[in-house]
Amino acid sequence: MREALRSGARPVRRLVVVHTDRQFSELVELARKAGVPVRIEPRQALDRLVPSGRHQGIVALVGAKAYAEPDDMLRTARERGEPALVLLLDGVEDPHNLGAVLRTAEAAGAHGVVIPERRSVGLTGTVAKASAGAVEHLPVACVLNLSRAIEQLQEQGLWVYALDPSAQKSYTTLDLKGPVALVLGGEGKGVRAGVLDKCDDRVHIPMSGRVASLNVSAAAAIILFEVVRQRTGG
Known about the structure:
Blueprint: H1 2-7, E1 12-17, H2 25-33, E2 38-40, H3 43-49, E3 58-62, H4 70-80, E4 85-90, H5 95-107, E5 112-116, H6 125-130, E6 140-143, H7 146-155, E7 159-163, E8 169-170, E9 180-185, H8 193-198, E10 201-204, H9 216-232
Parallel strand pairs: 1-2, 4-5, 4-9, 5-6, 7-9, 7-10, 8-10
Antiparallel strand pairs: 1-3
């Protein structure tokens, strides 16, 4: 961790610690000098980030690859002659969930995934492994402000739709043949109200059981392959 912060050879996205006292002061100072955000979180949050390992109260989130820019995704869509398909994730903090979403997005032909700098796990090694190699083929952008990213996509002609369990419309009512961006929320809280307000519309996945919502990776699979169905005529 210390060498990663000093060398800058691999992108350290943020440092998460249970406290910033003398035990971790050197690493915290190195992170701040390198411009790496430092967040204080309860031990349970670190346990979620390292579900099968030992963290000793400090975790560095190191990117498994360099991040792309949202414009790169739109450029790729234009070069392929395809309507853009971009996924935005608001608050996916479980690395296995993010990896599974990336795997599904790549399989569905999405041009990229956008995650926020905060409230997201980022491209860790665990995410890369859970993606089953998809992270090597799918551009992922990390943005400071997800609401602003939505506005920029809208300015480029994309319609932006959010999955929201409280929405009145079903996702099957949408016309997804044109350039679209789909917004999904993370574990527990879903899409934040401020992000929802920026979207052009919001829809839900009809459910008949007693469970109120689906895992984000399952929800992503359902709506992404509705896009595939509409665009291929399947």
